[in-house]
Amino acid sequence: MRPSAVRLLNVLVPIKRTIDYAVKIRVNPQQTGVDTNVKHSMNPFDEIAVEEAVRLREKLKDQVKSIKVVTIGPPKAADTLRTALAMGADSGIHVEVPESAPAPEPLGVAKALRAVIEREKEKGGVDLVIMGKQAIDDDAGQTGQMLAGIMGWAQATFASKLVVDTGKNEATVTREIDGGLEEVRCKLPAVVTTDLRLNEPRYASLPNIMKAKKKPIEKVSPSDLGVNLTPIFETIKVTEPPKRTGGQKVESVDELVARLKQAGIAAVKS
């Protein structure tokens, strides 16, 4: 049984290695996806999640027992874990997949994270998952919600402010909605997904980068977790959007309508 009040929080932060946000995306020659032979970095929303976990420890001090980061990706994804460790996380888990393996879908990632959480029960469990609201490569924005659903945990998405009360064993999250702000309160354990305005991630200092090299990273495979990350959907073809053409000036509304009809945009009345 989980105690009624959480005294020491174990925080899990899932992160993803994605194409760097500053890189111009191009379709590969085979038209099976985008060219991945470019600079990669941590998904920006995940950087915010790592920063928030570290800030949470700075606020609660000795009430946060551990911050663990986890990623699913090829061997190069270990560099992303090291970045998170340099920002202040304590340890990492690398669910390693082959370089040629297709990217797992949100449901597969959620099931893998559930398996990681189940394994962590032997080490004190996980009380709070903080993760980016979406990855900038697929923009799915589904993994956090799916993880909370299959775990049966509370969830608070698109967080712009997070306050955790370990005495009451709950988290209060401010969310940005169309009409303004919404405040939700949920019992721990919970899944919180981060929005852009939650914080500004810090730069890892050189001493912390050196320290991160000594922090432990556990390597596991999907089979170790008992999950299958093979995508259900198959991408048939990826193409770039058509090139935009320059605009043209017209002298009258009638000429505009005629041009639109020629382009097959305006309906032609009989």
Automatic annotation (TrEMBL):
Q: Describe how the cofactor binds.
A: Binds 1 FAD per dimer.
Cite the entry's keywords alphabetically: Electron transport, Mitochondrion, Transport
Q: Which SMART domains match?
A: ETF
- SUPFAM superfamilies associated with the record: Adenine nucleotide alpha hydrolases-like (SSF52402)
Q: Record's GO cellular component, any one?
A: mitochondrial matrix
GO MF, one example: electron transfer activity
Record's keyword annotation contains Magnesium: no
Localization: Mitochondrion matrix
The keyword ATP-binding is assigned to this record: no
Q: Which cofactor does it need?
A: FAD; AMP
Task: Give a GO biological-process term.
Answer: amino acid catabolic process
Stored InterPro entries: ET-Flavoprotein_bsu_CS, ETF_a/b_N, ETF_b, ETF_beta_N, Rossmann-like_a/b/a_fold
Q: Which family does it belong to?
A: Belongs to the ETF beta-subunit/FixA family.
Q: How does it assemble?
A: Heterodimer of an alpha and a beta subunit.
What is the protein's known function?
Answer: The electron transfer flavoprotein serves as a specific electron acceptor for several dehydrogenases, including five acyl-CoA dehydrogenases, glutaryl-CoA and sarcosine dehydrogenase. It transfers the electrons to the main mitochondrial respiratory chain via ETF-ubiquinone oxidoreductase (ETF dehydrogenase).
Identification of the protein by name: Probable electron transfer flavoprotein subunit beta
Q: What is the lineage of its organism?
A: Eukaryota, Fungi, Dikarya, Basidiomycota, Agaricomycotina
